[in-house]
Write a structure and sequence with these properties.
Elements lengths: L10 H29 L3 H27 L10 H16 L3 H32 L6 H37 L5 H21 L15
Bound molecules: fe (iii) ion (FE) (3 copies) and zinc ion (ZN).
Zinc ion (ZN) binds next to helix 1 and helix 3.
Length: about 210
């Protein structure tokens, strides 16, 4: 990308840029997935991520075919979006203590990646069709289909396994309170607050700071 001239002048250029962007993104994802797999402490989650790593390697091959179909050398262009998403996931994993909550964080981080990919493949497929590059469409669609399936699988793992377990442990630690007394306690706590709010005088307005200070 040039600072003094714009290098995308047509939909064709935008398509190629998008292809290079995704090629870069998929390669970064391949590098990042092993650490997520290593940190995952749920067998199903680990397996799902491992499967998607293999799929991602294959997606890179499909993108190489798309480059070839368009008489281009396969090459990547730096994608700041995927760099940020992957860095955020990596940072988050470093901040979480406890395997169960870590699993929840990994699912969310992985889904952020899938959603990014889904938007980009969606756009690329639309542009390929618009440009009449029909032979590229099925390859891109195959990748999109895998991203969507990966996203859905992650949702299922979260809902059925990972999320309930992370919350279940916390519940088991403290005995559940009877519903009625909990409600009574809550209403007692809120009532004086409510009447207090009703009688409360409006807080005096803060004097506006002088314009000249700005
Ligand atoms: Fe992918
Ligand atoms: Zn990008
Ligand atoms: Fe880009
Ligand atoms: Fe993916």
């Amino acid at each position: 990308m040039g600072l003094f001239f714009k290098d995308i002048k047509s939909l064709e250029d935008l398509f190629v840029h998008g292809l290079e962007d995704l090629y870069y993104a998929e390669n970064q994802i391949v590098k990042s997935l092993p650490k997520m797999i290593e940190n995952a402490h749920d067998a199903e989650l680990k397996r799902g991520l491992q499967q998607h790593l293999r799929e991602t390697e294959n997606q890179i091959k499909r993108l190489q075919q798309v480059f070839k179909l368009n008489d281009r050398q396969a090459s990547g262009t730096k994608c700041p979006a995927i760099d940020g998403i992957l860095r955020e996931g990596n940072d988050l994993m470093g901040e979480i203590e406890g395997d169960d909550v870590l699993n929840v964080g990994i699912v969310a981080a992985a889904q952020a990646v899938e959603h990014y990919e889904i938007t980009r493949y969606g756009a690329l497929i639309a542009w390929a069709r618009e440009l009449g590059r029909n032979s590229s469409v099925p390859l891109l669609q195959a990748n999109l289909k895998e991203e969507k399936a990966a996203d859905q699988k992650l949702t299922a793992i979260a809902e059925q396994r990972v999320n309930p377990k992370s919350e279940g442990r916390k519940k088991a630690a403290s005995a559940p309170r009877p519903r009625k007394s909990a409600r009574a306690r809550r209403s007692k706590a809120t009532m004086p607050l409510r009447s207090g709010a009703r009688n409360r005088k409006p807080a005096p307005r803060r004097k506006a700071t002088r314009r000249s200070r700005a």
